[in-house]
Automatic annotation (TrEMBL):
RNA-binding keyword on record: no
Enzyme Commission identifier(s): 1.14.19.-
Protein name: Acyl-[acyl-carrier-protein] desaturase
Reported function: Introduction of a cis double bond between carbons of the acyl chain.
Organism: Hibiscus sabdariffa
Annotated family: Belongs to the fatty acid desaturase type 2 family.
Keyword set, alphabetical order: Chloroplast, Fatty acid biosynthesis, Fatty acid metabolism, Iron, Lipid biosynthesis, Lipid metabolism, Metal-binding, Oxidoreductase, Plastid, Transit peptide
Top-rank taxon: Eukaryota
Length: 391
């Protein structure tokens, strides 16, 4: 029933196969759930890279790097202000049982009682969202591929590098919070979840941003808005299922995503002002490639279509849908005043027409997909101990 909003669905996916780590000392694990040492470990297939489609590099003309150097001060005054001082940020502990308090066990018990009321389909989506956040090393790497804005030293004082590090540090709280919550709630198979994270970080991502900060920041703008929407919806659904604490937890993450979206949107707004042609061409380029979700290469060692299955459940329960994708495109077209751009090249005008007509086209496709929708199957998700969830 879901419109295929994941471009990987359209191109077919060839998921990675990894070898198991060699287990040096299984004897030390009194409470460990490590799998037994296998005689076959030496025969396991070596790591195979997933099939990738966007491997072009350094496509931005080198002279455009100057634009980003010249925006250094502008970024300090206009972008870094969207970071929150650490002392004012919430921390994962603020939403979780306090292990240093006497009431810890009771708080954990209450958290688990509340979680019992929530269906598996919700947990499948929350796990997928958490795993997406967990691949943060990949996203920081991606931002540091961008020509003109990358952190050249690991502690570069430029505004662009300062933003990337502080953004990563803020995002890391999302990962911690969701992981710790899911660990305690007792509703998911953490070993399967943890394996999926390890596979995903090992695979990386293939966003098609080609070292260009134009493409890179269009991608991040889109993603921040997408995560704002999806965490907002997991908050809304937690409320529906009667868990106000979980709703607050997800809502706090959504609020961060909104702040990040504001910053990335402003970068593109500025680029549209300085270089409308280059910006609209980049916008159309990313839209033609379709925004592949950052965790599109996820794999749990069992389900070769795990990302598609997770996306289908997210679409069905209304956490992130094809309609949301179309709404984001429409919002960005409005926000960057793409319709009003003048003085474009012939290619620029074509790109402008393409992006301005895209949201209605996606909606029409979605309507047709809905009409053709058949009853969707139930499939097992290893994340919820193999229990079946409707796609
Ligand atoms: Fe996040
Ligand atoms: Fe974010």
């Amino acid at each position: 029933m879901a419109l295929n909003i994941n471009p990987m669905n359209m191109i077919g996916s060839n998921l990675p196969s990894f070898s198991l780590p060699s287990l040096k000392s299984p004897k030390v694990s009194m409470v460990s759930t490590l799998p037994p040492r296998s005689k076959d470990i030496g025969n396991l297939k070596p790591f195979t890279a997933p099939k990738l489609v966007h491997q072009a590099t350094h496509t931005m003309p080198p002279h455009k790097i100057e634009i980003f150097n010249s925006l250094e001060e502008w970024a300090r005054d206009n972008i870094l202000i969207h970071l929150k001082p650490v002392e004012k940020c919430w921390q994962p502990k603020d939403f979780l049982p306090d292990p240093s308090s006497d009431g810890f066990e009771d708080q954990v018990r209450e958290l688990r009682e509340r979680a019992k009321e929530i269906p598996d389909e919700y947990f499948v989506v929350l796990v997928g969202d958490m795993i997406t956040e967990e691949a943060l090393p990949t996203y920081q790497t991606m931002l540091n591929t961008l020509d003109g804005t990358r952190d050249e030293t690991g502690a570069s004082p430029t505004s662009w590098a300062t933003w990337t590090r502080a953004w990563t540090a803020e995002e890391n709280r999302h990962t911690d919070l969701l992981n710790k919550y899911l660990y305690m709630c007792g509703r998911v198979d953490m070993r399967q979840v943890e394996k999926t994270i390890q596979y995903l970080i090992g695979s990386g991502m293939d966003p098609g941003t080609e070292n260009s900060p134009y493409l890179g920041f269009i991608y991040t703008t889109f993603q921040e808005r997408a995560t704002f929407i999806s965490h907002g919806n997991t908050a809304r659904l937690a409320k529906v299922h009667g868990d106000m604490n979980l709703a607050q937890l997800c809502g706090s993450i959504a609020a961060d995503e909104k702040r990040h979206e504001t910053a990335y949107t402003k970068i593109l707004e500025k680029l549209f002002e300085i270089d409308p042609d280059g910006s609209v061409l980049s916008f159309a380029d990313m839209m033609r490639k379709k925004i592949s979700m950052p965790a599109h290469l996820m794999y749990d060692g069992q389900d070769e279509s795990l990302f598609d299955h997770y996306s289908s459940v997210a679409q069905r329960i209304g956490v992130y849908t094809a309609k949301d994708y179309a709404d984001i495109v429409e919002y960005l077209v409005e926000r960057w005043k793409v319709k009003e751009l003048t003085g474009l090249s012939a290619d620029g005008r074509q790109a402008q027409d393409y992006v301005c007509g895209l949201a209605p086209r996606i909606r029409r496709l979605e309507e047709r997909a809905q009409e053709r929708a058949k009853e969707t199957p139930f499939i097992p998700f290893s994340w919820v101990s193999g229990r079946e969830v409707k796609l």
